[in-house]
Amino acid sequence: MDVYLLPIGRDRFECYYETEEQEETEEVAGRGFFARMRAKFNEQLKEAEHARHQRTIEEPKTFLGRVQKRSMRWIAERIAEQRLLWHLRKVDAATLHIAEDLAEPVADSIMRASMKREADRHRNRLIIYSLALIASVPVALVPGPNILGYLFSFTVVGHFLAWRGAVRGLHHIAWTIAPNPALTELRRAFSLDAATRHQLILDVSHRLHLPKMARFVERVTAPTA
Hints:
four-stranded mixed sheet
């Protein structure tokens, strides 16, 4: 598994992973409560990705339709954010690609600090949303497109899988560090003017064969009002 320690500033970094969307779902065995939640979770992944790729200009005409569309958009964004951690659950070894001018011990420390922060964050949110799910079980398990059930079941399972992935990345995965010249160029991009930086980010994305990377970098580095 290839993970990229992306520069998102001169001295800021973010772990990044990219995969095909159809690889997200997995077989779920069993008939218990958690198995049903995992099955619903897989259905939501497929629906959210389908909704994200729809290019319809028209908004749904009903209030419920608009709420459901926005919910699917929200789920699709969470998929992108948690993809790395979900996949870390399934591997024993991974390669961390870093900029050539970043010392390996420093890169390892940055990656592990990120994993610890993510493990704590997803554990805390898992507790909160699990309590909320318990309170709403009668609604969450109703068949059909109920929005509350979608959001609660997706959120609980998503945080659980992300927490497991972060813990595994921190304590169980054997990491190999590999300097990458393209990431060195990406780090240099943040000293350039906006137009040149944009072009360089696109170029690095192409060189690394990561078509979604450019959008990710520009989203996390965009100034906030």
